[in-house]
Amino acid sequence: MTTDQQTPQGGVKHRYRHEGPQKHIVVFIFSIVLTLIAFAAVAAGGVNASFAVILLLVMAVLQVFVQMGYWMHLKDKGHMLPILFMIGGFFVAGTCIIMSLYWVWWD
């Protein structure tokens, strides 16, 4: 559904699309499913530990993209600067983690 905003002169100022709750419900269900998969992988005792860790990491990355894209609205126009700052933060944090691991295990 598109909605027009009227200017005082009667013209159309902006046109935007109203998103509605349908996408939010689908994304919420997807988030719950990701959480249940991660919980089931840990709760099931017969799962290989390395497979469970890899599965948890994949579920966590998917959850981050879902949360940032839909709940923080980073998929919308005009959010490039916050995205760039987050990418820079991930780069700095990743560099610190890699260097600290290198420092700890360096012989």
Helix percent band: 55-70%
* Shape estimate: flat
User: How many beta-strand segments?
Assistant: 2
Question: What is the CA-atom radius of gyration, in angstroms?
Answer: 21 Å
User: How many H/I helical runs?
Assistant: 3
Task: Give the structure's gist in a few sentences.
This protein has 107 residues and is mainly alpha-helical. The chain has 3 helices and 2 strands.
Kindly describe this structure.
The chain contains three helices and two strands. The protein has 107 residues and is mainly alpha-helical. The mean pLDDT is 80. It folds into two domains: 2-75; 77-107. The protein starts with a strand and ends with a helix. It has a two-stranded antiparallel sheet with strand order 1-2. The longest helix has 26 residues, at 80-105.
SSE order and pairing:
Layout: E1 2-6, E2 12-17, H1 22-43, H2 49-71, H3 80-105
Antiparallel strand pairs: 1-2
Family: Belongs to the cytochrome c oxidase bacterial subunit 4 family.
GO cellular component, one term: plasma membrane
Transmembrane segments: 25-45, 51-71, 83-105
Features:
107 residues; mainly alpha; 2 domains; two-stranded antiparallel sheet; 10% strand; flat; transmembrane helix; Cytochrome_c_oxidase_bac_sub4; Cytochrome C oxidase subunit IV family protein; Cyt_c_oxidase_su4_prok
